[in-house]
LutB/LldF family L-lactate oxidation iron-sulfur protein (Salinactinospora qingdaonensis), 475 residues
Amino acid sequence: MSATFVGMPAFPEAARSATGDAQLRHNLHKATRTIRDKRADAVGELDDWSQLRAAGKAIKDRTLRHLDCYLEQLEESVTAAGGQVHWAADAAEANAIVTELVRATGEDEVLKVKSMATQEIELNQALEQAGIAAYETDLAELIVQLSDDRPSHILVPAIHRNRAEIREIFRRHMGAWGVAAPEDLSDDPAALAEAARVHLREKFLSSKVAVSGANFAVADTGTMVVLESEGNGRMCLTLPETLISVVGIEKIVPTWQDLEVFLQLLPRSSTGERANPYTSTWSGVTEGDGPREFHLVLLDNGRSDTLADTVGRQALRCIRCSACLNICPVYERAGGHAYGSVYPGPIGAILSPQLRGTGSAVDASLPYASSLCGACYEVCPVAIDIPEVLVHLRERVASGRGHRAEGAAMTMASWVLGDHRRLSWAQRAAGWARNLVPRRLPGPGAAWTDTRDLPAIPQRSFRDWWRDREQEAQQ
């Protein structure tokens, strides 16, 4: 059972610890730069990338504006294709639905296809409490699960591990979960992949229930779409008798024509490939082919609240490509665990506080986990303006649970700026006292001035300068 993010410290403290780990910084630097360079080459091949990006944004925005209609259409399409649709308002409801569906089969274990949604709701932990074992089949997720670790990247959950570490994880822990790794296992990538293949093959051939997510759900046909690079997901989607898919309500695309745009955007942005190695699609159930039962669990879990925010809702356009993580200078140095969420990096800094709220120290700190350099916006394939949402969420945090002194300062500033006479008086007072302003503020203000230089206060305000200039011109 993998560890959870419960009890993680706020970002500043977690990042301070992570940046002190030289091996972690080396692993992240090497991996993110490699993926970043591949993406740049793949995107550079297309003359119409900017048009594709604009099309992806437009499709997502149109879908979100009419999400209620497309959700109803998706339910009708899935039901017509022989599937069953379940609605989950939150994580607890989704976990309860999946648990009951697995129990109804009489099985006590399930295979897992890599899924951010099931990680978000901590499905594995809920199944374990119900006496049901969940086995991850994505190679990186397998590494995380075997080492009782946490995922640290959207695309490559074990990006913080190097080959030598993975070899030791396989040698020490594979035997407790199934077929053991060879005693003479090397850290050669091919040898590691072969050990994982042998280990997983037993599970693929014996398990009767699988749980997946979906990268996209096509509303007009009820088709689920999963993109992956290994083929393990396809084994899970075709061999078991029962397939349960937990899908966020924002994953809908209206038509196959719309899907075509994202099948170009996603692989180039995520793995730097022209096309995804394995793209699996299925619509309901088909007699004699694939699972006999298909269940779709549509997950809200804070998405409706996010949709209601006219600025923050653009985070729901995310297609989980991880390009923003690979370009982010903060993520490259702090790693994914510092974000205290299954969604790390820039997208996690705006998505987690919206899905979970900003009531906890972890979520209140995430909007500040950025330099606002804007690199994440430049590489986002659906043009999410992450810096804009970060500033928007900082405003929410500051007004909702900021320090009392900060709140008092904002109230005073609002009062002064609300009347031109008060503003004029304040500017003159600041000019008179400019030589008395300390370079370092006392109390809570010290944290602000320790990382910023206070601007010099001019002797005269612009208003006074302009008034004097006008008077001189009239003489």
Q: What stands out?
A: The mean pLDDT is 92. DSSP finds 23 helices and ten strands in the chain. The longest strand covers residues 242-248. The beta strands are 84-88, 109-112, 133-136, 209-212, 216-218, 223-228, 242-248, 252-253, 278-283, 293-299.
